[in-house]
Amino acid sequence: PMKKEWFGLVLLVLAFVFLRLPGVELPLHQDEYKWPQIVNPAHISETEIPHPPLGQFIYQTAGEIVGYDVHFRYVPLLFGVLNLILLYVFLRHRFDTVVALIGAGLFTASFYSVLASLMVDTDGQILPFFFLLALVSYDRLRTLSARSTHWYFWLSLTGLSCIAGFFVKVSFVLAIGALVADILWEHKDRLSHAFMLRVFLWTCSGLIGLALLLFLAQKMFPFFNLSFALTYWEHFWNTDRNWFQTAIQVVKAILYTSPLLIVPALFLRAQEFARLRVFGFYLLFGMVFYTILFDFSIGALDRYLQFVVIPLCALSSVVIARAMKEERVNVLALSAGILLACVLSSLQFLPHWVPSLYPKSAWVGRIISFNWTFLYPFSGGSGPLGFYVSFLFMGLTWVCAGVLGVVAFLKPHFRIVALSVLLPLGLVYNGVFIEEYLVGHINGFTPGLVARAVPFIAENPDITKVVVYNDNGGNEIQELGKYEKRLYTSPQFDVNDKIKTMNAFSGHYLVIDVPRIDPESVFAKYFATCESVYQDTDKAMSATVYDCRKAPQIQ
């Protein structure tokens, strides 16, 4: 049995890596390419990493090994593999091998996990690594006597994991808080005023200790600027909140997560949840922190919400494993699920409208009116480089998953049937996202458009300065030495300032139109007055190089 168990884990690790290998050399996008620029000692960058120093130290060390280029994606990929193993170990210890294999399998097949393990940042895989390491260490700590030598080792590893996570990002206090809340809940019967006072004093001491270590870190890591890190948080303390934008980004994160991770977790039993209560606290604290306490709508909220992947994989794996053990998967329902997934997937090949990102009311209106034959654009400040997925496919998949969930709730004996249908449906849903992100065979592949446009710009001596729309291909244009700046069309920026900037600029624009520019906007009207010197298309996407040196002034 042990050999089979290890064989299964090795297969999952190989599947995890091979599924992500096509994405390790995808172009670095926006905030992603800042990492190699900042941590490369050969470059002088005016930009700083506004976080504690360990994340920058990790990428700087990795850069010395793999180089300061697109190979940076191997860093989150490596941490993703470690997280897969730690998640397996944690679930096996709390439950059994079957739950552990299913949880690791969900983590392997989830698109949100794929995105997180290829995104050059710390939220997706590095922070979860230290959280899982703390949980695994604490689990070992609980099984040992306080007099045991090994007890001190696991206690130290638990503490060091928490400190290291905090040294990556201050938001790691959410993970620490979840662990502390879980410990307090576990011992709630022993709580007394004296005990709570001790907990309060220990908590205050811990926070003071972390703050002191952060202050001392400036001596250990010369590149770390504590005052800049502290003032950075002022950006997210905003009384004039854009709740609509927050809602849009939360919905995007839900679409990334998929019904496969969300619907099964709703049927967790109380005794099962008790073993995973720490993840419940983590989800609660994280959602309150990112959507209510602070305004992350101005940033890449979908990147921060990647923290939900591991908890949901764990929660759903328990439900799936229980259903398989108690009743086994219904073969007929499984076949129906496969057929349904194929039918829904085929709907992507119907003619679809490609909306512009702004005004968002256009595609929100189509959603409300059930006119779902349009392509939904996915992109972000730290990636991914834009791609499209059919909203008709996504919407109907979620509707089917929702119906299955409601029926399973009302008729418990139907749950194994519902789960048997949901499994292939959820896997295909994630597979479509992964395919469009990594290869884009259905709706187009933005990295391919970048790869073909860059040589044209490089070989054209007339092109000396390039403004890059949405920074699609910005890193590659910077490497050519022809990068002027990036252009955003978001209404949060003053359009009059944009007009002044465009009128003052004499040069070329690279427009890879994902997401698409509103044809009625001042930007589209301006580009209509420029000369198109390069044009390329791929399915629903296009790349255009505009020569705007002789463009008339716009008002």
Description:
There is one protein chain. The strands form two sheets. The protein has a five-stranded mixed β-sheet with strand order 4-3-5-7-6. The protein has a two-stranded antiparallel sheet with strand order 1-2. By secondary structure, the protein is of the alpha/beta class. The protein starts with a helix and ends in an 8-residue tail after the last strand. The protein is built from 25 helices and seven strands.
Give the secondary structure arrangement, pairings included.
Layout: H1 2-20, H2 31-39, H3 54-66, H4 74-94, H5 97-109, H6 111-116, H7 126-142, H8 149-168, H9 173-186, H10 193-220, H11 226-232, H12 243-257, H13 259-262, H14 270-275, H15 277-293, H16 301-304, H17 309-326, H18 331-346, H19 361-368, E1 375-378, E2 387-390, H20 391-410, H21 415-438, H22 446-459, E3 466-469, H23 474-480, E4 483-487, H24 495-504, E5 508-512, H25 522-528, E6 531-538, E7 541-547
Parallel strand pairs: 3-4, 3-5
Antiparallel strand pairs: 1-2, 5-7, 6-7
Helix pairs in contact: 1-4, 1-5, 4-5, 4-7, 5-17, 7-8, 9-15, 15-17, 18-20, 18-21, 20-21
